[in-house]
Design goal:
The protein is of the alpha/beta class and 229 residues long. It contains eight helices and seven strands. The protein has helices spanning 19-26, 36-45, 51-64, 69-76, 85-94, 107-114, 148-161, 217-220; strands at residues 2-6, 97-106, 123-131, 137-141, 168-172, 186-190, 205-207. Strands 4-3-2-1-5-6-7 form a seven-stranded mixed beta sheet, with helices on both faces. Strand 3 (123-131) and strand 4 form a beta hairpin. The longest helix has 14 residues, at 51-64. It starts with a strand and ends in a 9-residue tail after the last helix.
Length: 229
């Protein structure tokens, strides 16, 4: 068994807004460097709050502005998929890969953006928003598979399914993907947003300025894919 694990934002999408920033902005909050939005992010990065606490505080801010489910439906329309998803996923499936998404985005947003392309994925792992009977936000269930949790997801693929690390490719673009290399799997930085894209310890391969996902196939399907590491 082989697997490809994808980040979503700026990996399967292209030139699209950050969903969290868009929510804060549409609810009337500032998102500049002095904003509460940035403050919470930095508190998490600096390990002053946990991922769970970050989500709780974010949820409280959203609820104060009476966030409605319809906002996510609206914002999902602004997100554009990268070209070549159908051809890429069909090729990977035909070559025996299971396909997964691990993302800090929101599950319903990802599903709305993918549409019928969601059928290609064996799992979509992201944050969940719960709503009350009036369709107003009541709770955010944070994904356990973001930041360091992305590495945990790959480790679980290895442990639960008996997949060798050398039979897994992780494809991402940014700093929150960079713990995955610790699992020993193959890593590919696609359209990097991280300054570490040249660090071969973290990213085995890098593709710059790609507008079509089929560009990954020449790497993922390379004949030495199953090399020992």
């Amino acid at each position: 068994m082989k697997a490809v694990v994808f980040d979503f934002d700026e990996t399967l999408t292209r030139n699209s807004p950050n969903i969290w920033r868009s929510i804060w902005q549409n609810l009337g909050y500032p998102t500049d460097k002095n904003s509460y939005y940035v403050e919470l992010y930095m508190q998490f990065i600096n390990e002053e709050i946990t991922h769970q606490q970050w989500n709780v505080l974010t949820c409280e801010a959203f609820k104060q502005q009476n966030m409605n489910r319809s906002l996510l439906d609206k914002l999902a329309k602004d997100i554009t998929l990268i070209d070549g998803i159908d051809e890429t996923m069909q090729t990977l499936k035909s070559n025996g890969f299971s396909l997964h998404i691990v993302s800090g985005n929101i599950d319903t947003v990802i599903e709305d953006v993918l549409g019928d392309k969601a059928k290609y994925f064996d799992s979509i792992n992201a944050n969940k928003f719960l709503y009350n009977d009036e369709n107003k936000l009541s709770y955010i269930i944070p994904t356990k598979y973001d930041f360091q949790g992305k590495s945990q997801f790959v480790s679980e693929l290895i442990d639960k399914n008996g997949i060798r690390p050398s039979d897994i490719y992780y494809i991402g673009d940014g700093p929150n993907d960079e713990w995955v290399y610790e699992t020993g799997c193959n890593t590919l930085c696609l359209n990097p947003t991280t300054p570490n894209f040249n660090n071969k310890r973290i990213w085995n391969n890098t593709i710059h300025n790609s507008s079509n996902l089929t560009d990954i196939l020449s790497i993922v399907l390379t004949k030495d894919f199953n090399r020992d590491r």
